Q: What sequence folds into this?
């Protein structure tokens, strides 16, 4: 019995935090790692743990070559986790890249498991209005999603001057392959097995 108890303790000790379920972790993603990008470059798939739509590009200004932000080359604007898992979108900074006629608007459309859970187009109060001044905006929806889209009305002509940065979210860390036990951990595990076997032999001898 003592050997079995010790073996159970050894198993508990060798369990690592990676083996335990982790909760959502808050993060803010900027795009400075992609700087400089004067002419704009596609945001690589997997950047920051997300897949970015084909219209999502990183861009820098000549006056700030180390400060990258997101601009768009069309209306196919979407974000999802690279592993397809849920995340929580907490907002981002949006602004216009225009010096004049900098007013524009867009809508968030959020989905989970193939179902739309928030559609900003359904209510005019959910219209996101942006100007040349940086402003933090969020949908107001607080539940988990696995797909986020930014859409436009009025022919979609505001995509060409919308910019965003500091994408704020919560997400469970990306799944990782089980870690290979370190030699010491393996030795402890094997020692536990040996103790268990020894205990079994002792009990068998007593019974005889």
A:
């Amino acid at each position: 019995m003592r050997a079995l108890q010790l073996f159970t303790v050894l198993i508990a000790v060798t369990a690592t935090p990676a083996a335990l379920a982790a909760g959502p972790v808050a993060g803010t993603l900027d795009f400075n790692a992609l700087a400089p990008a004067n002419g704009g470059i596609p945001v690589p798939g997997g950047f920051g743990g997300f897949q970015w739509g084909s219209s999502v590009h990183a861009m820098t200004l000549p006056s700030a070559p180390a400060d990258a932000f997101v601009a768009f080359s069309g209306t196919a604007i979407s974000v999802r986790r690279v592993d397809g898992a849920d995340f929580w979108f907490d907002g981002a900074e949006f602004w216009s890249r225009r010096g004049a006629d900098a007013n524009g608007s867009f809508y968030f459309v959020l989905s989970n498991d193939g179902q739309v859970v928030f559609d900003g187009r359904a209510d005019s109060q959910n219209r996101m209005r942006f100007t040349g001044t940086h402003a933090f905006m969020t949908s107001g929806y607080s539940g988990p999603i696995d797909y986020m889209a930014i859409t436009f009305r009025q022919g979609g002509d505001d995509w060409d001057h919308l910019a965003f940065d500091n994408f704020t979210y919560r997400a469970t860390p990306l799944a990782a392959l089980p870690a290979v036990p370190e030699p010491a951990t393996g030795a402890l595990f094997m020692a536990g097995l040996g103790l268990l076997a020894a205990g079994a032999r002792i009990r068998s001898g007593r019974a005889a």
